[in-house]
Amino acid sequence: MTCPLTIAITTRNRADFLGETLDSILAQLPSSVELLILDGASTDNTPGLVREYQARHPQLRYVRLDSNDGLDRDFDRSVSLSSGEYCWLMTDDDLLKPGVIEAVLAEIGKGPSLVIVNAEVRNRDLSEIIEARRLPFSGDRVYQPADFDRLFAETASYLSFIGCVVIRREVWLSRDRESYFGSLFVHMGVIFQRPLPGAVIALAEPYIIIRYGNAKWRPQQFEIWLFKWPEFVWSFAGVSPEAKARVAIREPWRNPARLLLYRAKGVYTRSEYTGLIRPRMRSATSRLGAWAVLLIPGALANALALIYCSLVKERAGFRSVDLKNSPHYYGNWLPRGKLRVSQ
Prior knowledge:
Blueprint: E1 3-11, H1 15-26, E2 33-39, H2 46-56, E3 60-64, H3 71-81, E4 84-90, E5 95-96, H4 100-108, E6 114-122, E7 129-131, E8 141-143, H5 148-159, E9 165-168, H6 169-173, H7 186-192, E10 200-211, H8 221-233, H9 241-247, H10 256-265, H11 270-277, H12 284-295, H13 298-311, H14 316-324, H15 336-342
Parallel strand pairs: 1-2, 1-4, 2-3, 6-10
Antiparallel strand pairs: 4-9, 5-10, 6-7, 6-9, 8-10
Helix pairs in contact: 1-2, 5-9, 10-12, 10-13, 13-14
């Protein structure tokens, strides 16, 4: 039996956060909407936690896999298992604000191919707003199939966050997904492999609360954001170079300033240089520049980056969080009492 919307959560070993996410959803979930949890073989208390919620909420359907097949495959499987005409590919540690499900139901009633739900970003314990709106829109926007380049330029950066995607199920299933397994961005492959058949609605109101600094891919962020992401962005043949350039520099790893930032974050080490940078740099001069960044002490790089963030406000909140999570951050060396006072 079909329903208008399935909120499909793919999870693995996130019992510490999943309950809060479920509370934010179930408090506003109408009987016409399905909530599906696909568990990629969690080894923590996820099964027990979900059973407790199932006992109180019959709309919650739980599917546990025998093995972990990766994020992209699991999200694709969750769409296949969904009963909804639309699937909301929700994350397992972020929150929905009151009223958002009602708002999304109103938008999908117009028959679009995709609804993009805006978000605010908070720190890991949700106590501080880092960014009030990920999409800096003052009003909702509608993109038609002919607006493909504009859609990409204005929304692709935000769409790296899968939790904002509410997509028509038949559109998802009609498109190539397998080519994007392992990319970490299968949803973007589905959306941007060619223009969508119908309209895309982007909601300006930030209805989602993103918990920043909690992603499981953080140890791989150097490879993801300096290599995988730009290569992915530039892989779409149907998008103009101008639109791609608004989303990602083609080879950001060639920029010493970017390498210095990742050095400050504690994720650019000799291993990244040897495995990722050196094989791609043909000239000795360029290799020397990348190596020279490694010679800068991590604590010094971190301090310089924090000073830069205090002077340049663009994305300063995100960078400050990353820099304070770095092993090179000076606060990590202080006694606990002093650390609490300093922050």
